[in-house]
Amino acid sequence: METEKQVREREIYKATIVGSVVNLLLLVFKFTAGIVGHSAAMIADAVHSLSDFVTDVIVIVFVRISNKPQDKGHDYGHGKYETMATVIIGLLLLAVGFGLLWTAASSIYAFFVKGESPGEPGMVALIAALVSILFKEVLYRYTVRVGRKVDSQAVVANAWHHRSDALSSVGAAIGIGGAILLGDGWQVLDPVAALIVSFFIMKVSVELLVPSVEELLEKSLPDEVEQQIEETLLSFPGVSEPHHLRTRRIGSYYAIEVHVRMDGRMSLEEAHAKATAIECRLKEMFGRSTLINIHVEPLK
């Protein structure tokens, strides 16, 4: 029978491999459509799909490492590797967003200041953008559902990368469609749309980076989670004054350290049994992989 970690790893691999296959096909399709249709926007969109494919590879590699058990050099496991994967994906998204911003701003400047036209794209580029929007939105919904199901920040981050590619394709579709339908004088719509989309992409990247960097810097779990932990401790008869509570996230699981007080006349065996019961309850709440350290002190 598969363990919880094996099931989680299998679900992540399945979602990521499906995404990588779709990304590879879209990558080839959009590059071809951009070249044949003379569309700089579609070629830029294809570069975005290339970054998606790269992040799929990153997720596959880092999640495999993060699921390795504890060893001599990693007493707390390898969960932070998954967090590192999320940071890398966020940085790639930020770079893609800034690249699109720079390219779009340069085209707009050239159009209004130098009078250079971006050129009229072909219909094949518009078709490629519409196909990309459909496939990437479906891929986003599928991947984010799997990521939330298995509680994987890296998979959720990768899902948002799919969504950012869909948004990029929306911008390309608006620009290409406007240039085709409205003709000369409106070809600047392509870079304008790309400029707007670039801000959305960079916003998503920051939203992914901030919590991941905070985790790497050992930020505590949210206040509501810590309050839930304390309430659980106090729900056990004879357990009081929880203090020195230290919490953090390690990839997909939590680490909890806390001191509690019990009756000093209680036998060591009874105190141990009660601490074990508390551990079991917390693992039921937060997952079997939760790392828990309970220090028992006598009542003063």
UniProtKB/TrEMBL annotation:
GO terms for molecular function: monoatomic cation transmembrane transporter activity. One of its GO terms (cellular component) is membrane. Residues 17-217 form the Cation efflux protein transmembrane domain. It is found in: Membrane. The keyword Cytoplasm does not apply. Its main location: membrane. This is Cation transporter. It comes from Bacteroides pyogenes.
